[in-house]
Design a protein that fits this description.
single chain, 339 residues, alpha/beta, nine-stranded mixed beta sheet, three-stranded antiparallel beta sheet, 12 helices, 14 strands
C-alpha cells in the first residue's frame, strides 16, 4: 500500500461529509483525563461510608486486578449514594481539565484538528455537521467556536439554557441561515445539570459544582444504560441515531467501539450501505478491528500508531501494513491528506 491509496480512502470519507464520532482518545491530546487517570482519582478521593463500603471495596479490588474503570464498575451494583459520589468526583476531575482547556482555547494556545475539519466540511453547500460523542468534555464545542461556527447541544442559546425540545432551533444572520454543528452528547455534558426540582438546564461552567445541582453525566457501570432512558440523554441518543442512520460516511477519532448507544446504528448503517468509514486511534482496540473487518465493507480505513510510522488496515490489507515515517493515525496528519 502506498500513501496515495491511503489518501484516496481518507478523501472518500471527507468528501462524503461524514458524521464525526469522537471517543475519549480525541480528548486526551487536549489534556482531558481518561478512564485510567480517573480511576486513580476516584481511589484517592472517594470516601465510602458504611452502606457503601462493600460495593466500593469490590470495585477497588477489580481495579487492583487490572480491570479498567468501566469493567470494574460493571461488576457490582453500587448503592445510589456511592453512584452520586462517583458522579461528583468524575465531574470535578474532568471539569477542571475542561476549564483549563477553555482558557487555552480563548488565548489561542490550543490546536484543534477538529476545527480544521469543520471549516473544510463547511466549504461545501452542507448546512449541518453532526458530531456524536460519549465524552462529557466540551472539546467539540471549543473546536466549533474556534472554527467560527455555531454549535447546538440540545439546549436553547443563553446562560441559563433550557432544553431545545422537539422543535429544533435555526439561527439566521440577516436573511441567511447560519451553518450549525450539532453535537449529540449521548452520555451527557459537563455543563448539563438537574436542580432539586428535577428541571434540567445547561449552565456556564465553573470549577466547582453549583450548589443544589446534580451533574447530568452518565458514568460507567451498571446504571449507565438505565439513566439514558431519561431526558436529556434520550433526546441526545435519538439525535445521534438519526444522524448515523442518514450518514454517507463516518469518521471515528479515538473511539473504541465499546458503546452500544452508538454501536448498533454504526453496524446498521454499514450493513445497509457500503459507506466510507475511517478510524483513527493511537492504539486500535480489538473491538475496533473486529468492527471494521466485519462491517466495514470495501471502503474502510483504520490507522494506529507504530514506532516506525502508521499501521494501516483496509479491506485489501486486513492484517495491517506499515507505512514508515508518517503519522496518518493522528488527527493533525490525517487532515493533511484528507482535506
Amino acid at each position: 500500500m502506498i500513501v496515495d491509496d491511503v489518501a484516496k480512502l481518507a478523501q472518500s470519507c471527507t468528501k462524503s461529509l461524514p458524521v464525526v464520532v469522537l471517543g475519549s482518545g480525541a480528548s486526551m491530546p487536549h489534556n482531558i483525563r481518561g478512564m485510567g487517570a480517573l480511576s486513580e482519582v476516584l481511589q484517592d478521593e472517594l470516601q465510602a461510608e458504611d452502606p457503601e463500603r462493600d460495593a466500593w471495596a469490590k470495585i477497588c479490588e477489580a481495579l487492583a486486578d487490572g480491570n479498567g474503570l468501566e469493567e470494574a464498575l460493571q461488576k457490582t451494583t453500587p448503592p445510589p449514594s456511592l453512584v452520586k459520589k462517583i458522579v461528583e468526583i468524575t465531574w470535578k476531575t474532568i471539569a477542571s481539565d475542561d476549564i483549563s482547556l477553555l482558557e487555552r482555547a480563548a488565548a489561542g494556545d490550543e490546536n484543534f484538528p477538529l476545527n480544521v475539519l469543520i471549516r473544510h466540511l463547511f466549504t461545501s453547500t452542507n448546512s449541518t455537521i453532526h458530531i456524536v460523542t460519549p465524552n462529557y468534555d466540551r472539546v467539540a464545542e471549543y473546536a466549533t467556536d474556534v472554527a467560527d461556527h455555531i454549535h447546538m447541544t440540545g439546549f436553547v442559546p443563553g446562560l441559563i439554557r433550557r432544553r431545545e425540545g422537539k422543535s429544533t432551533i435555526s439561527i439566521q444572520k440577516g436573511s441567511n441561515p447560519l451553518r450549525i454543528v450539532r453535537i449529540w452528547k449521548v452520555h451527557g455534558s459537563l455543563d448539563w445539570f438537574e436542580n432539586r426540582h428535577g428541571q434540567v438546564f445547561s449552565l456556564p461552567m465553573t470549577r466547582s459544582l453549583p450548589p443544589g445541582f446534580t451533574p447530568m453525566i452518565v458514568t460507567p457501570g451498571v446504571s449507565k444504560y438505565e439513566r439514558t432512558h431519561d431526558e436529556p440523554f434520550r433526546s441526545a441518543i435519538q439525535g445521534a441515531d438519526a444522524a448515523l442512520e442518514a450518514a454517507n460516511a463516518v469518521l471515528c477519532v479515538g473511539y473504541g467501539f465499546r458503546d452500544r448507544h452508538i454501536q448498533a446504528k454504526l453496524v446498521e448503517r454499514c450493513q445497509q450501505k457500503n459507506i466510507p468509514i475511517v478510524v483513527l486511534a493511537r492504539t486500535l482496540t480489538d473491538d475496533s478491528k473486529t468492527f471494521v473487518k466485519k462491517y466495514g465493507g470495501r471502503a474502510y480505513l483504520a490507522m494506529e500508531d507504530d514506532p516506525k510510522g502508521t499501521r494501516v488496515f483496509t479491506h485489501n490489507e486486513p492484517k495491517g501494513q506499515l507505512i514508515e515515517g508518517r503519522k496518518f493515525w493522528s488527527f493533525n496528519d490525517f487532515n493533511k491528506i484528507a482535506i
